[in-house]
């Protein structure tokens, strides 16, 4: 059996109707996982899940706004009700309503970033990890960002939240390791997604960014999905508490 085989595993992936989340869901389904597609809009979730099923994968759709605890509770409960215990949790959904210096960010925007990007990860892990442990163990993957490793003059609150992701992974890896639950972060650099469109569509920002990347290009969603599959599978069975940077070498060269 392949080290990357995910047959029989239930994978719950937030923010999985586009970008990195969609790539992760698609690739995990290809490896045999039953995937739960989740984002705010049920119709879009249904469409994405249907597309995965049309290609031979197994997928269901459960809408969830990560800002609301009751919706996170519903997501966890419905997943277990329909598919059984989760074996793979991918916390991918995040937001960033503000681009500019920290001095000027409105309180509402700052609080929104912290509540969604840190709070939802904390709450969903509280809801799902005990079930992962009860079923013999599994993998939690938090999608962070290289923004959490570097200073920034335009993404301050977002970067703080992504640094917090890394610490959540370390804490939970220590707490749940004895129950065979592995918790890791992936920290992408600039990736061609709608979420980062303002960065890669701006010629000046793009040029400045890739000039510092040894590979001289930005990443693609599948290049993040591959690492998620590794961390979720037996190939990653001795990896926990880590932040895996996937940025074309940008962090080490700039």
Automatic annotation (TrEMBL):
Please, which domain of life does this record's source organism belong to? Answer: Bacteria
Q: Where is the Ketoreductase domain?
A: 9-179
Q: Fetch the InterPro entries from UniProt.
A: KR_dom, NAD(P)-bd_dom_sf, Sc_DH/Rdtase_CS, SDR_fam
Entry-linked SMART domains: PKS_KR (SM00822)
Family to which the UniProt record says this protein belongs: Belongs to the short-chain dehydrogenases/reductases (SDR) family.
Give the protein name, as stated in the record.
Short-chain dehydrogenase
């Amino acid at each position: 059996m392949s080290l990357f085989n995910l047959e029989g595993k239930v994978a719950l992936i937030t923010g999985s109707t586009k970008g990195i989340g969609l790539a992760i869901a698609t690739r995990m389904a290809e490896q045999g996982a039953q995937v739960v597609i989740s984002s705010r809009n049920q119709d879009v979730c249904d469409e994405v899940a249907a597309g995965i099923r049309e290609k031979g994968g197994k997928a269901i759709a459960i809408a969830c706004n990560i800002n609301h605890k009751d919706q996170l509770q519903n997501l966890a409960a419905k997943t277990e009700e329909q598919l059984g215990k989760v074996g793979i949790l991918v916390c991918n959904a995040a937001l960033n309503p503000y681009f500019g210096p920290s001095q000027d960010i409105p309180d509402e925007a700052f609080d929104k970033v912290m509540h969604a990007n840190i709070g939802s990860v904390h709450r969903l892990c509280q809801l799902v990890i005990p079930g992962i442990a009860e079923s013999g163990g599994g993998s939690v993957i938090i999608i962070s960002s290289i923004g959490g490793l570097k200073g920034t003059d335009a993404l301050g609150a977002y970067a703080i939240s992504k640094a917090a992701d890394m610490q959540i992974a370390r804490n939970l890896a220590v707490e749940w390791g004895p129950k065979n639950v592995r918790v890791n972060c992936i920290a992408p650099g600039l990736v061609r997604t709608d979420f980062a469109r303002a960065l890669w569509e701006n010629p000046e920002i793009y040029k400045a960014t890739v000039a510092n990347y040894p590979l001289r290009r930005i990443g693609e969603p599948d290049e993040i999905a591959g690492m998620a599959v590794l961390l979720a599978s037996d190939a990653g069975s001795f990896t926990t508490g880590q932040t895996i940077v996937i940025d074309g070498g940008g962090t080490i060269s700039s």
